[in-house]
Amino acid sequence: MVYIPNHWKLCASQPVSFLLDPYTSSFTHVTVSVINVVISQIHTFHATDFNDGAYTLAMSPGLYIYSVFSSGELLYTSSFLVSSSDFTGSDILFVSPQATFAAYNNYLSNSNYYVYGNWLHKFTRRNFDIICSKLSLNVPLSIAREIKLNRLNLRLHNDLVCTDPCESSHLGQAELSALLCLQEFSASSALKIGYISDCFSTSPRFTKLSLPKLVVIAGHSEYWSRPYRHWLHYLKDLGINLLFLSGNTGFRGITIVGNSLYVYAQGLPPHSPYSSSLLTGCYYNSNGYMTFSNGVNISSLSPFNLRHNHFGYESHFESFKPFGHETDKPLPRFLKKIIVHAASTGKTPCYFTQLDHASGSSVFSANSVSFSHSLSLSPSTKSFLIDLLPFMLS
User: Fold this and answer.
1) 95 and 218 Cβ atoms separated by less than 8 Å
2) Across all residues in the chain, what is the average pLDDT?
3) How confident is residue 123, by pLDDT bands cut at 50, 70 and 90?
4) From CA 61, how far away is CA 36, in angstroms rounded?
5) Using the 8-state DSSP alphabet, how is residue 71 labeled?
6) Residues 6+ apart with CB under 8 A from 158
7) In this model, does residue 169 exceed pLDDT 90?
8) Is residue 141 part of a domain?
9) Which pLDDT band holds residue 71 (cuts at 50, 70, 90)?
10) Which residues is 263 bridged to in the sheet?
11) What DSSP designation does 334 have?
């Protein structure tokens, strides 16, 4: 088995190192295939290529899928992002939610949803976190849920290899769906995409030459560090447009120290400093949890006619439907300011929204965890977004 260390910090300016997984027994005849999903750049190497347990490759910026085979049988697959070292000329900046991917990983150690240990430890930890969530408590790192980063991510593997149309992805396949949709649009419009992870200790800054027109946060982006929160508000203050293609956005607070991620807040209130609600005007609550529904375009702002008045109707399968699976709702204080581009047809309302800020920034949000994945499953949902992208880039 093979894993990538520090995969939340990879940058095109440095080679990417693949390491043999120290937790598992070795396999014979191991082959690793690494594919850049945008330009179909393929690297293949074998167990015999490892020198002292490591193999390095120089890689261009982008999202990669890598698969590990033993004697032709798939053992493991995952994705990783190589960030751009220079954002000059990038019209769209693609942000990968690596922190959320890590929080779901329970491979041989804790995730934020599973605890290793005896029944008493599990019971105590789970109920402590529930209390912290209900009371919106921020806890010190000494008692925060710790999640190890340098390990295989089997939760991401299970998400990427799932072929059940009844399952709605909110991790790897969701991110991939969003990127391929953006790539199709950018290729036809001669636009350049830059890449960055949401895990950084020092917020990246831009020059006038490197300012993107649109920053897209793809997939499920639930776990935010303080530097990341500050950075998103910095972008908004610069007048850059933002697009969130998911829901349950920025709900939890994390701190990254070394090779560990600590969840210091299991549920931040919407009025907390640098909250996602101050960007989108919407925030998560559990009403209508896992209530999937189709969409209806109700926007009258766009300078062109959208192709579909209804979208997400191609199948009865839940994952085809753009709204559902944890949704953000408009907050009362923003109701008169929010512009609605689309609405769900289900009993629990969900909206594709726009909130304009004094800086000139417009922040768009799909407000649903199922939206990104539906872009690869529902042609009309993808057309809806592609028709809105020129408006977001203007």
Assistant:
1) yes
2) 89
3) confident
4) 9
5) T
6) none
7) no
8) no
9) confident
10) 145, 254
11) G
Query: In the 3-class helix/strand/coil scheme, how is 72-137 assigned residue by residue?
Result: CEEEEEEEEEEECCCCCCCCEEEEECHHHHHHCCCCCCCCCCCCCCCHHHHHHHHHHHHHHHHHCC
Domain end point (choices 45, 80, 115): 80
Q: Which of 203, 265, 258 is nearest to 235 (CA)?
A: 203
Any domain includes 310: yes
Q: What pLDDT score does 23 carry?
A: 59
Residue with tokens 């992870």: 197
CB 209 within 8 A of CB 236: no
Separation CA 340–CA 334 (nearest Å): 12
Q: Are residues 58 and 92 in the same domain?
A: no
For residue 188, the surrounding DSSP H or E stretch is helix 172-189
Alpha carbons 263 and 42: distance in angstroms, whole number: 36
Query: What does the pLDDT average to over 316-342?
Result: 91
Residue with tokens 């997939």: 219
Q: How far apart are CA 260 and CA 151, in angstroms?
A: 11
Whether residue 52 is found in the same domain as residue 181: no
On whether both 219 and 73 belong to a single domain, the answer is no
Cβ pair 154, 105 in contact under 8 A: yes
Measured between alpha carbons, how far is 16 from 12 in angstroms, rounded to an integer? 8
**Domains identified in the chain, total number:** 2
Q: What percent of the chain has pLDDT over 70?
A: 97
Residue numbers of the domain that contains 35 = 2-80
Residue 159 lies in a domain: no
Residue whose structure tokens are 């969840």: 263
Question: Do 346 and 323 meet the contact criterion of CB atoms below 8 Å apart?
Answer: yes
Residue-wise pLDDT for 292-322, tens only, equals 999 999 876 665 667 888 899 887 788 789 9
The Cα-based distances of 45 to 31, 42, 63, 73, 78 in angstroms read 6, 10, 18, 15, 16
Domain shared by 285 and 361, yes or no: yes
pTM above 0.70, yes or no: yes
Cα–Cα distances (Å) from 163 to 45, 129, 168, 305, in that order, read: 27, 33, 10, 34
In a domain, 24, yes or no: yes
Residue whose entry in the numeric block shows the structure tokens 């994390």 = 254
> Where a domain ends, among 30, 46, 80?
80
